[in-house]
Known about the structure:
This protein is an alpha+beta fold.
Amino acid sequence: xxxxxxxxxxxxxxxxxxxxxxxxxxxEIPWLKDFVIKQFDSIYKIDWTVAARTEPEQYVSFxxxxxxxxxQDARPLTGRLVSPAxxxxxxxxxxxxxxAIQAKGHDYSIPxxxxxxxxxxxxxxxxxxxxxxxxxYHRVHFPQQGALQTARYIPGALFSVxxxxxxxxxxxxxxxxxxxxxxxxxxxxxxxVLIGAMIVAGIQPFWDIAPFKAQQPIDQPMxxxxxxxxxxxxxxxxxxxxILITQANQKWCVAPGSTIKMGQALVS
Length: 268
């Protein structure tokens, strides 16, 4: 079954399927969006206790629900470097030969992921990957205060990013569409990468009210825009993965397989 699942992902029209589902997710027809939200809730058991709006009828679309805001202080910042998102820590490690681990038996080129040369100052750095399940809070936040230098949207495929696919599709994260944010910081520079995935209707950056348009690359200077720790960086209109790549070599205090929340300390 695993081989069939992977094989079908190569065959199906990923972008067409995602656009069709995205059309439903954007719909503001009351009965349709309420039905989809309730069905989603029945499958994934959403934690409504931390949502700012607690009834399906309060959302204008499924996308509005999926990227829902949380109540104040639901995600306190608890360290100098914190998790950018809710999710599952799928892998952590140190950068070796400008490569990072995707899953057992697979690694990938960090420069290929970023769409640019990795500065040599990152050669002894670290990385951490967070997988966002459908039930998770789907806004991604800056893990540390700094200055946003560049934002690059790289179009690509839309493979699923669950662990099964990560285990079997080489270079998965360098194949999928992604948003690459480069931040300079007094505590060490870092990259924050948002990875698109199957069924994702878009990656929406914090400075825009709409997601990027598929197949239209963007390379945008951000002029050292000041960003605060915990400030929203972007959101997924349906789930995916966030990758943190740091210049400093980190002693991660979270382990692969553990569940984390946005704002939770990543280093002691």
